[in-house]
Amino acid sequence: MDSVKVGLIGMGTIGAGVAKILLGKADMIARRVGKRVDLVKICDCDTTTDRGVALPPGMMTSDVSEIMNDPDISIVVELVGGTGIAREFVSRALESGKDVVTANKALLANCGEDLFALARKCGRTISFEASVCGGVPVLASLQTSLLANRIESIQAICNGTCNFILSEMESKNAAYADALKEAQRLGFAEANPTLDVDGSDSTQKLAILAQLAFGARPDWKKIPRVGVDVVDAIDFRFAKDLGRTIRLLAIAERTSDGLVLKVTPTLVPENSALAKVTNAFNAIQIVGDSVGPVFYQGWGAGQLPTASAVCSDVIDCALGRARITFDSLRLWSDERESVEIMDANKIKSRAYLRFNVEDRPGVLADISAALGKHGVSIAAMLQHAKANPDDRLASIIIVTYDAPDEALQAALDELAPIPYIGAPVKLAVRD
Q: Which residues are bridge partners to 115 per DSSP?
């Protein structure tokens, strides 16, 4: 039986999972694929720590050249992360005539255009299923099963850390800080969770989805984003009054004015599929012009779910399917049909606004006047009685009809100098 040899760079949590699958299921994979997919070398700067995987003698090395210079290794799996040394390793692998599999969404979001151009120049491929939604086969569907469709919209819960935090706040009435601590205790959040909770991680993944589904090549740093760190437990109580709950959504939507891209905590109907996605699960809803809405859900992170997606790409490379997909889709290329990205200030949407204000006459009139002056219509208003009548501050909730973001921002800028109206929390609202 023919053998395809694989080199793995990065033996962290996901790398150890890849090793477990490729070594532990080698015979099963061979029977299904018709050739052996043999992991023959693993490179990591730490060669002594026990990762819970029984490795053959001599498999581990700290010298990446043992992978790059081995002519028998045809597939390199990059699981280092980041955009520095990882970019160097991917480039070296391609230039060495090897196909690359990666789970590195930051690398693709920042360097996808250059790396894919290099891969085409070298006659090699890059596969990256695990970079978005972990073990959920979203990218494979966009690259194969949904190719007969013009994609109309994507709504994705693509960060398990944030979804866990919001689920804790919703189910336990927990404060944001307490929910974050619990996520860290359980290993769902990093010690420094900034890239997750401020929406950066979801935005990088949205940039990849925008390329696959719409041919767009956005600078992810310019995509409007709001993280879960602005949400308070009280927002869930008001959302429930409106028949909704809150999820962090990465949104891509085709409109007559261009492609809308944004990441923001969003009030979604409490009976919707997205509302029922809890804990550290990921989900994505895609609407195609022919197929209509399709929905995917599963673990978006974790050792084995993510490793499963990596191994799927390795097998596709071994079978030659990755080559067909890579050559036909021309990702990150001027040859792809592209949708123009809409100016963020022109995006029309509904908004949820929570104002913490001094409890005094005329406050609501001031807010209504500013919104009305800039053409922002109010769809609903909520206010709960204060739990303590002596509290100085009260919360007022305004839900708007569709309005351009620049008009809404102009109204909020007008309210900003008023000392008895605090800066609002602004979330999105979708049906």
A: none
Coil, strand or helix at 69: coil
Q: How many CB atoms lie within 10 A of CB 334?
A: 10
Rounded-to-integer distance, Cα 321 and Cα 65, Å: 27
Question: Which of 82, 81, 83, 39 minimizes the C-alpha distance to 61?
Answer: 39
Give the global pTM.
0.94
Cβ-contact 294, 286 below 8 angstroms: yes
DSSP collapsed to 3 states, 206-262: HHHHHHHHHCCCCCHHHCCECCHHHCCHHHHHHHHHCCEEEEEEEEEEEECCEEEEE
Token digits for 69?
């210079």
Beta strand 36-43 pairing with 60-61: parallel
Cβ atoms of 95 and 118 within 8 Å: the answer is yes
CA 409 to each of CA 136, 263, 358, 415: distance values in angstroms, whole numbers, following the listed order: 36, 17, 21, 10
For 187-219, b/e burial (b = at least 16 CB within 10 A) is ebbeeebebbbbbbbbbbbbbbbbbbbbbbbbe
pLDDT-above-70 percentage for the chain:
99
The answer to whether residue 205 is catalytic is: yes
Q: Which domains does the chain have, with CATH numbers?
A: 3-134+305-329 (3.40.50.720), 138-299 (3.30.360.10), 344-429 (3.30.70.260)
| CA-wise closest residue to 183 among 194, 171, 191, 195 | 191
Summarised one tens digit per residue, pLDDT across range 177-198 is 999 999 999 888 989 999 999 9
Q: Is the pLDDT of residue 300 over 90?
A: no
Q: How many CB atoms lie within 10 A of CB 256?
A: 5
Which of these, 326, 317, 321, 320, lies nearest to 75 by C-alpha position? 317
Mapping DSSP onto H, E and C, the string for 108-123 reads HHHHHHHHHHHHHHHC
Residues comprising the chain, all counted: 431
- Which residues neighbour 317 within 8 Å (Cβ) at sequence distance 6 or greater? 4, 74, 75, 99, 101, 125, 127, 323
Tokens of 141: 């569907």
User: What is the number of other CB atoms lying within 10 angstroms of the CB of residue 314?
Assistant: 27
CA dist list (Å): 183 to 105, 159, 207, 267: 22, 12, 26, 22
Question: What is the distance between the alpha carbons of residues 176 and 219, in angstroms, rounded to a whole number?
Answer: 29
Q: What does the block give as tokens for 6?
A: 């694989």
Annotated catalytic residue within 5, 105, 205, 426: 205
pLDDT tens-digit readout, 145-165: 999 999 999 999 999 999 999
